[in-house]
Automatic annotation (TrEMBL), chain A:
GO biological process: cytochrome complex assembly
Keyword field: Cell inner membrane, Cell membrane, Cytochrome c-type biogenesis, Membrane, Transmembrane, Transmembrane helix, Transport
Protein name as catalogued: Heme exporter protein C
Topology within the bilayer: Multi-pass membrane protein
Localization per Swiss-Prot or TrEMBL: Cell inner membrane; Membrane
Highest classification ranks of the organism: Bacteria, Pseudomonadati, Pseudomonadota, Alphaproteobacteria, Rhodobacterales
One Pfam assignment: Cytochrom_C_asm
Automatic annotation (TrEMBL), chain B:
Record's protein name: Heme exporter protein B
Membrane topology: Multi-pass membrane protein
Residue spans crossing the bilayer: 12-35, 47-64, 96-119, 125-150, 157-178, 190-213
PANTHER family (alphabetical): CYTOCHROME C BIOGENESIS B-RELATED, HEME EXPORTER PROTEIN B
Organism, scientific name: Primorskyibacter flagellatus
């Protein structure tokens, strides 16, 4: 075990991914299956919300990851700008669509839950609105990646966009708070025990969150490895053409 | 810096610079709204601040891709990049020129268009104040977007996708000032926040824009 940065070598990275990926994917599937089955069939209905409460097992983990995927992209972008490790830039690129899909899942499950509970599919609530804005940021980020032809320039530009976007995303988060009153309930999970959901829902929820996080890691590793291989193929082909 | 500013202003005002284009677009957007929602004065009065803000935002967006694209085509952007003037300064001047040729005229015609939408007198004042405080941020943020997409062949559509989410805080606070002003509520809080967004954007974004421009010119 040397320095952490050894894994920035694409070759080392793919070797490690080859070894780790099956285990991570397996654990992700196991945790998701266990958590969802436990959550859906072996927890009681809520006394006010009935069985609709069970969408929490999809909604909370996906929402959590939608934000943390962006955070991971921010860190990866900073690493790319500072240390110029290609794997870092590619990981940020690989995480973007996954994060965008998580945002969509959170919005959709929220809408499905909101229809019977709030009586509406959509409300211009601060949390809902900031998630929609986050989704727009993801779209812009992905679009910029695919629009720039030169790979390194694309990585540079998207990194700066990610940093500036993060600042504005946080700003928007507080701006929409100011702009409209909230309908959404408070945090489901926090260090402060007072606010947490009841214990029966708590443990399967944690299992589901673990499953989603593992799934995210597996997908990002897989997509990064694919991108590295695609680039290597392109480089080899280019070399063959010139030779 | 002054020379660059004067040059940019001249280029924008002379034929083909699209100086009047943004204003005309602003006018058309505002004229189209009553056709779409009906001519009832009460409704128009209520939505006027929002409509005027959206119109100003879109008019601003329209002229963004001109900031760097033409200079890039004829090579003067490369010359500016190697000139003794720091690139951050170039970007700031260009944003200022964009504001003087787009933002300021929008502020000037906004009262007239406010009358078209039957905005009351008090609301007009606050609308002008909010636009005056908010449009510099629109120009600076837009310059960042323009710097991001300067190397792309069809950057226009992407530019709007990138820039519009960044406009959200400015729009929220700006429209809030105008709305609160029109209905006689307290405008101090949103106005201070709007000014804060503008100040921070003006102070920091030129550095990001210059960095991005360097990456694009490499």
């Amino acid at each position: 075990m040397g320095s952490f940065w050894e894994y920035a070598n694409p070759k080392r990275f793919t070797q490690v991914v080859d070894r780790v990926l099956p285990a991570v994917s397996g654990l992700a599937v196991a945790a998701l299956v266990a958590g969802l089955i436990w959550g859906f069939f072996f927890t009681p209905d809520d006394y006010r919300q009935g069985s609709t409460v069970k969408i929490i097992y999809l909604h909370v983990p996906s929402a959590l990851l939608a934000i943390n995927a962006w955070l991971m992209m921010l860190v990866a972008s900073l690493v790319w700008l500072v240390r110029r490790h290609h794997v870092s830039a590619l990981a940020a690129r690989a995480a973007a669509p996954v994060g965008a899909v998580m945002t969509v899942i959170a919005l959709l499950t929220g809408a499905i839950w909101g229809q019977p509970m709030w009586g509406t599919w959509w409300a211009w609530d601060p949390r809902l609105t900031s998630f929609l804005i986050l989704f727009l940021f993801y779209l812009g980020y992905i679009a910029l990646w695919s629009a720039v032809e030169n790979d390194d320039t694309a990585a540079d530009l998207t990194s700066v966009l990610c940093i500036v976007g993060s600042v504005f995303a946080i700003l928007s988060r507080y701006a929409v708070n100011f702009w409209n009153q909230g309908l959404h309930q408070g945090a489901s999970l926090s260090m402060d025990k007072e606010e947490n959901v009841a214990d029966v829902f708590y443990i399967p929820l944690l299992v589901c969150i673990a499953g989603f996080v593992l799934l995210f890691i597996a997908l990002v590793l897989l997509r990064t490895r694919t991108e590295i291989r695609a680039r290597r193929t392109r480089a080899l082909l280019a070399r063959e053409v010139t030779a | 810096m002054t020379a660059l500013l004067i040059r940019d202003l001249r280029l924008a005002v002379r034929a083909g610079g699209g100086f009047g284009l943004g204003l005309a677009f602003f006018l058309i957007v505002v004229v189209l709204v009553p056709f779409a929602v009906g001519p009832a004065m009460g409704l128009l009065e209520r939505i006027a601040p929002g409509v005027l803000w959206i119109g100003a935002l879109l008019a601003c967006l329209l002229s963004l891709d001109r900031i760097f694209a033409l200079d890039r085509e004829d090579g003067s952007l490369d010359l500016l990049a190697v000139s003794p003037l720091p690139l951050e300064g170039v970007v700031a001047v260009k944003a200022l020129a964009h504001w003087l040729t787009t933002g300021l005229p929008l502020v000037a015609v906004a009262p007239v268009l406010g009358l078209l939408l039957s905005l009351p007198g008090k609301g007009v004042i606050w609308l002008v104040v909010s636009l005056l405080a908010g449009t510099p941020a629109l120009s600076v943020i837009g310059t960042f977007g323009a710097a991001l997409t300067v190397g792309l062949k069809r950057g226009g559509l992407l530019l709007s996708l990138l820039v519009l989410p960044l406009y959200v805080p400015t729009l929220i606070f700006g429209a809030e000032v105008a709305r609160a002003g029109a209905t006689g509520l307290d405008t101090a809080t949103p106005l201070v926040l709007l000014a804060a967004v503008t100040c921070v954007a003006v102070a920091l974004l030129p550095f990001a824009s210059a960095a991005v421009l360097r990456m694009n010119l490499r």
